[in-house]
Amino acid sequence: MDAVIRRILHGTAVLGTLYHLYLVLHPYLPFTFLRFSIFDLTQVQRATHVFLVAFLGYLLNWRWVKKRGAAGSVPLAALTGLVVAEFFKLDLPAGFKAAAGCVWAATMLPCLVPRLMRPSNLVCALLCFLPFVYLIAEYETLIYRAILPEPWDLLMGLCEVLLVLGVIFRLSGPIMPLFVMLFILYNLYGDVIPGYLSNPGFSLDMLLGKMYCETEAGIFGTITGVSLKYLIYFTTLGAVISKMDYGRIIANIALLFVGRSPASPGRTSSVMAVLMGMFSGSGAADTQFVATLTRSLYDRVGYERLVAAGVIATVGSIAYITPPVMGSISFIMVELLAIPYAWIITMAIGPMLLYLLGIVVYNELYVRRRRLKPMEIETGHDFGYFRRYAYVFAPIALIILMIYRGYSINITVSLAALLFLVFAYADPTVRPPLRSIPEALAEGFLHLLPIASAVIAANMIMSMMVLSGLASKFSLVMMKISGSSLLLATAFTGVFSLILGMGVPPIATYVLTSALTAPTIQQLAVVNGIPEEAALLATHMFLFYYAVLAEVTPPVALSAYAAAAVMNTDPVKTGVFAARVAVPKYLVGIIFILTLNGTGLLIIPALQAMPAAEAAVAIVQRYLLSGLAVLCLNAGVVGWFRRDLSRGERLLAVVASLALFYPSTPTDALGVLLVAALLLKLWVEARVRARAKAGAG
Asked: Which DSSP category does 644 fall into?
């Protein structure tokens, strides 16, 4: 039985990846006139994608059952039970109600009785065919019945909702499906909520019609389309790189650039994370890759184990904001804001560089304060190795070139993956066995499953918020709390985003914060002198950046858990040290939203809002002052700059950094003066010591 399921899982995953790759070719093939719905219609393409995610998710969980605690499992079963109870109240045949109860039992009863999880996965995998086949058969008329769905529409809609929630629970835990259920119940029972946040309350048949029958709402909306149009191609690219063994080559190249220094392990992690981040876009995967390859280096130099784990966790999460392959949030921004992906690449460069600078500076100051011993990293390679394998960066150059030339992302990334395959089999020193190709295709889709399930959940949440008008109500509440203070609204949103990130992945954090807080922040930014379009871009880049920070913010930090698993450290303590390693990263995201001058860090908004010469000055100024702020803040946190700093000197360095981070002329001037005062004090003391030493000699 296990062998059969493994073959079905592997074969379906390969077919799923081939299906998405075929969608890239289909418009250019001579027989497109045949007009198959699963290749031509957005609604059916997304339904096919969701079916594959759910079907493969249940089969994957059948092979590797993940134990889930009762804390979230029992509430999820109870809340979905409320929806099924509402379904029983509808005027439907008894057989329909019995079928709904059976689907609930298959998807949610294992939440209450864990030993039923494994057999239920096979049942649920088979049930996934029902709403999918029904939608394929009825797609021509189904969309017109969204407001007044027929009985079969309601049953299939409920089945789809329960099956999607069930697979999200199995892949990612109970928090995401609980969020979805809270928003569904808010729409169902909003009329009983007192006060400002109440809503008229919507009938279940209307909610099911919206979620199942409409193309741009519920389960098959625009955000789900992001997984279909973008994410599958990047996970496939990552799997191809892994299976062709280019990860090892990239790691060896990174080791060539670190030198002989006590800081070499941290430098190695930074270079390796950036190089892999250019290909992967996955923080936890990047963290685990870096940790596995560099753990022994940290041990040999003598890093504190928690500091080493913190450095790795922090630098690993940089994959989310490293162009050109960034996290899934960037593609949602493309769809929601209707902007070119090249803009997001350009805007991400500044935050990524400052994020990286914060880690590198912390690492350099830490090893000097601890006086760690130098180490020669023996790689067995010289720079001839780099020249030999420099071609691995050609696909990345291709992606950047084609994106800036306006080609679609799925075509661009598919060509890059094909180029890696060509290189692998043309290079006799690489040339993996042919079975690696189907393995890469299968792995590409299987790696997508937890990400895609979170994307689908985010789409359901967004649809429920739009229907209830919660976003506008939350914005008004936030406006009352913050008054006219953009700084207060930004700080509130940053904390809100970090708290959300403790329970949900970055993509869901971004979707929630962008819907609930973006209108208020953008409005206040316009009031504070930032033009509307620049304010829109800066607001969403701020929310993007803070959603990523949740990956390394304790107590729930996925990158910290990935690093802790390899480094054998406590995950929560690792998260605390990850937060300490690059404290500036929490301030970087605020720079580009507070003032027009601050948007210079993002480049695009500054160029839109100012004349070219003025924008160039603002961009250069912001980069220089922000870099100086990162240096000062880390000096204050570590307590070292050319020598150990006293408590007063550390405080002075922190105050100077805060002044430099705030993007305004008075605070910039104050920060520069404080830095000059600190440097002058250190220089005078050094001169006095030198003279005293010379006199003693």
From this structure: B
